[in-house]
Structures are given as structure tokens and as C-alpha cells.
Write a structure and sequence with these properties.
The protein is mostly beta strands and 118 residues long. It has a single domain, classed as Sandwich (Jelly Rolls), CATH 2.60.120.10. It is 0% helix and 47% strand. The protein has strands at residues 4-5, 8-9, 21-24, 27-31, 44-50, 64-71, 73-78, 81-86, 90-93, 99-102, 109-116. It has a six-stranded antiparallel beta sheet with strand order 3-4-5-11-6-9, with no helix packed on it. A three-stranded antiparallel beta sheet has the order 8-7-10, with no helix packed on it. Strands 1-2 form a two-stranded antiparallel sheet. A hairpin with a 2-residue loop joins strand 1 (4-5) and strand 2 (8-9). It is globular. The two termini are 27 Å apart. InterPro entries: Cupin_2, GPI/OXD, RmlC-like_jellyroll, RmlC_Cupin_sf. It comes from Lysobacter hankyongensis. Pfam families: Cupin_2 (PF07883). Keywords: Metal-binding.
């Protein structure tokens, strides 16, 4: 829990990441460490990277999800539609809609993901 001095929070509640896990060839994911929080939020999250030329596996699940692209550029395959996706863009996936990412750029892509049960 953060301490407060004159209404200003001290020691912000930084989230740490679990060690990286391979998602597929050329992509890794690190999930947020939320279990240690005194009060669990209603969401989970991660960051993941995709190397140039690599693709993430197709994902489809019962949760809603948002991706925030921090670095790089590529193509998003979203329920069979392919669209360009680049740093600074944010996309939303409804539950059970398939999605995957192909890095078509020359540098790694870094994406932050937040998901929750609607």
C-alpha cells in the first residue's frame, strides 16, 4: 500500500512482470504479476514482443481484450480481416473473436495487452 504525504502518493504501486515465455517462433510474452496485490483488479495484462517476420499464434478466448502498440508495425488478422497496425494505435477484441499479429516491419513490435471478463 502506498503511503501519502500531503495528499501526494509515495512509492507508486508498480506492477512487475513474470519471466518471459515463448508464444511461438519469434514472439514472447510476460504477464503482469497481480497475485501479490492486496486488492486484485478486475483485469489481467501482459506485454509481448514479436520479432520481424514472426507471427503470434491465433488467439481466441472468452475475455475482452485491448492491445496498445508501443513499438513497431505489422498486420493484425482480426476475425479473418487483415489491417495495418503500428506504434501508437490501440485495438479492442470482443470475446471469441480470433486475432493474431504478423510483424511486417524491420524492428521488433512491443504490445501491451489488457483483458477482462465482460
Amino acid at each position: 500500500m502506498s503511503s501519502h504525504t500531503d495528499g501526494v502518493p509515495q512509492d507508486p504501486p508498480y506492477l512487475r512482470f513474470h519471466p518471459a515465455e515463448a508464444m511461438g517462433h519469434g514472439s514472447v510474452v510476460n504477464e503482469f504479476m497481480l497475485a501479490a496485490l492486496a486488492e486484485r483488479p478486475g483485469f489481467s495484462g501482459s506485454r509481448f514482443s514479436v520479432e520481424p517476420g514472426a507471427r503470434t499464434p491465433v488467439d481466441r478466448h472468452a475475455v475482452a481484450e485491448i492491445w496498445m502498440v508501443a513499438e513497431g508495425a505489422g498486420e493484425l488478422d482480426y476475425d479473418g480481416r487483415v489491417v495495418a497496425l503500428a506504434a501508437g494505435q490501440v485495438v479492442h477484441f470482443a470475446p471469441f473473436e480470433s486475432h493474431s499479429l504478423h510483424n511486417t516491419g524491420a524492428t521488433p513490435m512491443m504490445v501491451f495487452s489488457i483483458w477482462w471478463q465482460p
